[in-house]
Fold this sequence. Notes:
Blueprint lengths: L1 E2 L23 E12 L8 H18 L3 E8 L3 E9 L19 H17 L3 E12 L11 H13 L3 E7 L3 H7 L8 E4 L3 H20 L2 H4 L9 H7 L2
Parallel strand pairs: 1-4, 2-3, 2-5, 5-6, 6-7
Antiparallel strand pairs: 3-4
Amino acid sequence: MTTIMPPQKGGAGGPGKKPAQGKGKALATDTLIHIVLDKSGSMESVRQATIEGFNRFRHDQLEVGGDALVSLTLFDSTVAEICSAVPLRELTDLDRTIYRPDGTTALYDAVGAAITRIDALIATKVVQPQRVLFAIITDGQENASRTYERAAIFDMVSVHEEAGWSFVFLGANIDSYAAGRSVGVAGTARTRDWIATPDEMARNMKVLSHATSRYRGEAAASANKADRAFFTDEDEKAGEE
């Protein structure tokens, strides 16, 4: 797995900043948001919309307040860990130097690497989140993984869903429900179809952001329930604004 460490901007923690630990102590947080984002060559047509959508998501979540950490994994033929458990307030905007579509779609490797990374952070008590939101955004089917197979990812996702993690799958130009189910995303209203156009990507990220804000606003005991609907009509309406 490749780790990209871009320079910090304006003194704030850049997208590649390592997990904040506060003088060696565990970083307690309300929510850990991990986004696994496709940057295969076919995403070039929505490159700018993806960058702007991610940045809007970040700013929206800042307005919600509270305490949240963000991790970002990008993938094409390979997997790049852009940041791990960076405090939302320290994360800088995504830009075209970091998000550069190319290659094919190693979806299974990206998901497997991301889950393994979060597990390690929690096991070593670097972070202690009350809830974990794991969002997968892609515009195509898996076709390039070398480390993980579908069955292994299905088992990993299923086990972590049972442990209270919330997985969501947003897929363009594919049957997201079928694709999400194939990798273990089985919760209620946890998948969303979108079309790979700039306008639809913008709407996609608005819907995700609105749903995430609701998720973060609920008590952990309610938010972590497997039968909790993640995407609602209210979120879809917000995506049109």
